[in-house]
Amino acid sequence: MTRALTLPALLILLFGGACRPSEPESEPAPASTTAAPAPAPAPPPPPLGTSALGSDLGTDMTPAPEAAAPAAPNLPQDRPLRAGFLVIDGIYNTELAAPYDVFQHTAFHIKPGIQAFTVSPNGQPVTTFEGIRIAPQYSFANAPPIDILVLPSARGSMDKDLENRAMIDWVRQTAGQARYVISLCDGAFVLAKAGLLDGVAATTFPEDYDRLAQMFPKVDLRVNVSFVDSGKFLTSQGGAKSYDVAMYLVDKLYGQEVAQGIGKGLLIPWPPAPDAMPRSVEPQAVTPAP
Question: What are the start-end ranges of the E strands in 133-186?
């Protein structure tokens, strides 16, 4: 019998032996009744282009102190932001798990943080391209309101999935109500099919630049960048670069200190060197393949 995995179980399977969780490993000691001396001021964060871990790499891997308040304005204070991940058959493991992991780890560094969950069209289990069975938490019919809509790439993102009218309509409607929309790799094709990237700067998997330009010429295609921030819409090359856009959005929402805390737990230096993660650049001509 095939056994369905929940997303937390999937993340443990994929990353449990490869990274250190960013949550505390033990309960904090009881508060002392004697007033403790005031701690020394924390050093300023390293400038862009230096290691986010600084000289502590390999020696101090404790989680960052929980931030007191979000950096971005107008974020809800009484509930977490809701990050809904669209999961369908053929979805790629990395582009689902990488941003899910980053967003879920906000809970260890800021309150209320981000609540990540999965949504499939009918709420039934799906099988990833690599063969892992996932049991989604919600369906299109009962998913809660989504603040951050995440569209990982799937095997059919450039062809058969684009013919799924119910899915495209749900993406269009949900994206319209979301604060941010993220696509990974060929998830950009789904956004473009929904008409959401017309005139919008965007990117996709490098080998699919020509195809996106040919199928959706109204997209302002950007090439040779990890991801593009177009305000509400953030599009990524995908693969291992899926971490970049998720870390960037956490920094944008909650500030560099929170992003650095997550980066320490996941061994992702933050902020990255300027030449390590180019973002949106001037449009470059892309000739569609014949």
Answer: 133-134, 138-139, 148-151, 180-184
